[in-house]
């Protein structure tokens, strides 16, 4: 109750203060058509480029970590970050760039730390099932990253940053980054190029050889070329990502301790081509994109010359999409679209000993899936106060046949005066997720560490029903306050379970992907924003979450019941000071509900000094309280990132 009391105390303070102006932001994700954020019939949380710059975020994981309800968690089996929404894990959250799906490093979860912010205009977040508009995997919600369109003329920028983890990193310069961008825009042409390099020296939370977070180098290179006139445009957008990681560690093989090292190299190539055409009262958009993901992971003992394990993974993703929007009379905006998506994965693992080499196919080259989808939506302006949006999506998967995902949203404005307005939103949607290629066909052989993970080609798709009801009060030029109730009911949830028979026969822990659970997540969210004056702003939110396995009546692990996030911002002359608080209650570690991970508290400080209109310096301290995971406690799920000091500069010319 102390979390709720704290939020209510802030709200009492908010409603008694003076007014300034709240920005209006254009969004596209809720209906796939442009809307002002406060007029969107679907509740959308938005982070603008200005907000991203204020918190010095280098990647999407850092950019969205202060958004209420979202939980940023380490991806299972790989170094990286995924996002959980309303207690639904990252495998069931769809991450998009300009509405386009992405490949994932684990075959199901997109690593947000691999996506840089240098070309990001805004990030739009939809909570709850959105399969009617976005298809499979949008059970928990959607993160849509909108890229920038450059301003007129020639623009360039350069950003340099460096920082230290003190004694928790093997190098004095624990992290560094360089960002550079250049763009040109005239009446008919737009060009841009963005380069981003990030270095992390690695994290060691205690003395010894083992790295808790690997040493890494990351490179992002993004470009865009667009030709346009008043009614027509075409564009091409290439993207490239490179990552190299190295993680030394120690394996205890009684009676010896063995030094081993794991290295991984990732290359990701992406190319998008699109055409947009405007007519008098309609518009058509067509785009195609292809992404190729290539990963090579090597594990070796320091005392030997051969590679103990050499794992190669390749993912191919190709998508063709078209959407047509048209006005039907004065009260309807009708949209129809179609998507064709093909995905293919291959993964092999070569195991070597002193006397032998064995090659295992973990995912064969013939492992692929193809989807054909059609969606229809009618944005019906019933009257000045009520807007209703029904929609449905037909999806045919080559492995699972056909499925219909309906969704309906309603937006009601009881009053809208010069001083204030009240928004009420309701949405119901069916979520639908076909098993990933990894979940169906995987053979992950880690016998050296005592376990294997096996896929199941007979898995059933997951489905969900999502209910969202929100009310939002906006005191114009002053503050906003929103309450959102949510209920998500999930069937055929895919999890990994231990196969006791195979485990006994092989002497290993054998895990299989299975449809073994029905789950629900429910609760409420409170969001608020307030500008006290020209110099002081506050925003944040509180989330109460109940997440349970409906079969066992046990709480789902890694879902804290309480979450609180508050951001305080102070502007004075050319200084910007920001303080961010994140607090989460204890959470269960396993489905047995017998062990809890400690509560989490994170405090970050940010300071930006504007020297002139083109030049600024900045710095900060992440994890001021220096609270992090106990490396000796495998049940401690807190962050592995200790306190981090950093300084940087931005120059625009």
Task: Describe the protein's architecture and organization.
The protein is mostly beta strands. The chain has a single domain (2-302, 313-353, 380-652), classed as Maltoporin, Chain A (Beta Barrel). It is 6% helix and 60% strand. The model is unreliable at 1-23 (pLDDT under 50).
Number of strands: 36
Q: How much of the sequence is in beta strands?
A: over 45%
Taking pLDDT < 50 over at least 5 consecutive residues as the criterion, the unreliable ranges are: 1-23
Largest beta-sheet characterization = 22 strands, antiparallel, barrel
CATH top level class name: Mainly Beta
Shape annotation: globular
* Number of separate structural domains: 1
On the 0 to 100 scale, the average pLDDT is 89
Please name the CATH topology: Maltoporin, Chain A
CATH architecture title: Beta Barrel
Q: What is the CATH homologous superfamily assignment?
A: TonB-dependent receptor, beta-barrel domain
| Tally of individual helices | 6
């Amino acid at each position: 109750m102390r979390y709720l009391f704290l939020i209510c105390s802030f709200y009492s303070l908010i409603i008694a203060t003076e007014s300034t102006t709240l920005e209006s932001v254009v969004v596209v994700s809720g209906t796939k058509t442009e809307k002002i954020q406060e007029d969107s019939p679907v509740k959308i949380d938005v982070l603008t480029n200005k907000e991203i710059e204020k918190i010095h975020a280098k990647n999407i994981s850092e950019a969205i970590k202060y958004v209420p309800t979202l939980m940023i968690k380490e991806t299972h089996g790989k170094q990286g970050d995924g996002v959980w929404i309303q207690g639904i894990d990252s495998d069931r959250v769809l991450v998009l760039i300009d509405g386009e799906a992405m490949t994932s490093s684990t075959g199901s979860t997109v690593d947000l730390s691999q996506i840089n912010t240098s070309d990001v205009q805004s990030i739009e977040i939809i909570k709850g099932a959105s399969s009617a508009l976005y298809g499979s995997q949008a059970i928990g919600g959607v993160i849509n990253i909108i890229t920038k369109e450059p301003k007129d003329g020639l623009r360039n920028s350069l950003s340099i940053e460096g920082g230290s983890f003190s004694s928790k990193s093997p190098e004095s310069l624990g992290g560094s980054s360089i960002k550079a961008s250049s763009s040109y825009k005239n009446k008919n042409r737009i060009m841009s190029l963005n380069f981003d390099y990030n270095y992390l020296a690695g994290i060691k939370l205690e003395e010894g050889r083992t790295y808790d977070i690997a040493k890494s180098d990351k490179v992002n290179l993004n470009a865009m070329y667009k030709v346009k006139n008043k009614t027509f445009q075409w564009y091409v957008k290439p993207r490239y990502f490179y990552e190299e990681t190295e993680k030394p560690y120690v394996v205890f093989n009684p009676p010896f301790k063995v030094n081993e090292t794991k290295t991984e190299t990732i290359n990701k190539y992406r190319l998008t081509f699109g055409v947009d055409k405007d007519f008098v009262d309609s518009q058509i958009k067509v785009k195609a994109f292809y992404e190729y993901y290539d990963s090579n992971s090597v594990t070796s003992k320091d005392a030997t010359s051969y590679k103990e394990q050499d794992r190669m993974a390749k993912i191919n993703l190709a998508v063709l999409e078209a959407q047509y929007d048209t006005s039907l009379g004065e009260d309807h905006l009708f949209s129809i679209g179609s998507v064709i998506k093909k995905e293919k994965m291959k993964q092999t693992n070569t195991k070597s000993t002193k006397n032998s080499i064995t090659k295992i196919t973990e995912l064969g080259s013939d492992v692929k899936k193809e989807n054909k989808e059609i969606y229809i939506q009618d944005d019906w302006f019933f009257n000045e106060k009520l807007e209703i949006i029904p929609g449905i999506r037909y999806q045919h998967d080559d492995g699972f046949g056909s499925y219909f995902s309906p969704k309906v949203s309603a937006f009601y404005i009881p009053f809208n005066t010069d001083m204030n307005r009240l928004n009420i939103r309701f949405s119901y949607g069916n979520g639908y997720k076909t098993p990933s290629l990894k979940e169906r066909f995987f053979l992950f052989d880690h016998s050296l560490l005592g376990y294997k993970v096996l896929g199941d080609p007979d898995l059933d798709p997951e489905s969900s029903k999502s209910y969202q009801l929100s009310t939002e009060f906006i005191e114009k030029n002053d503050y906003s306050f929103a309450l959102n109730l949510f209920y998500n009911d999930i069937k055929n949830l895919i999890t990994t379970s231990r196969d006791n028979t195979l485990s006994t026969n092989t002497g290993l822990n054998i895990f299989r992907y299975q449809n073994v659970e029905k789950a629900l997540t429910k609760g409420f969210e409170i969001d608020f924003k307030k500008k006290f004056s020209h110099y002081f702003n506050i925003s944040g939110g509180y989330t109460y979450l109940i997440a349970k396995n409906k079969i066992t009546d046990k709480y789902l692990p890694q879902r804290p019941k309480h979450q609180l996030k508050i951001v305080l911002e102070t502007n004075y002359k050319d200084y910007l000071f920001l303080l961010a608080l994140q607090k989460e209650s204890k959470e269960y570690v396993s489905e047995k509900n017998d062990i809890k991970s400690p509560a989490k508290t994170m405090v970050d400080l940010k300071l930006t000094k504007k020297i002139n209109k083109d030049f600024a310096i900045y710095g900060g301290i992440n994890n001021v309280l220096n609270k992090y995971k106990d490396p000796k406690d495998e049940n401690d799920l807190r962050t592995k990132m200790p306190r981090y000091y950093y300084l940087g500069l931005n120059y625009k010319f």
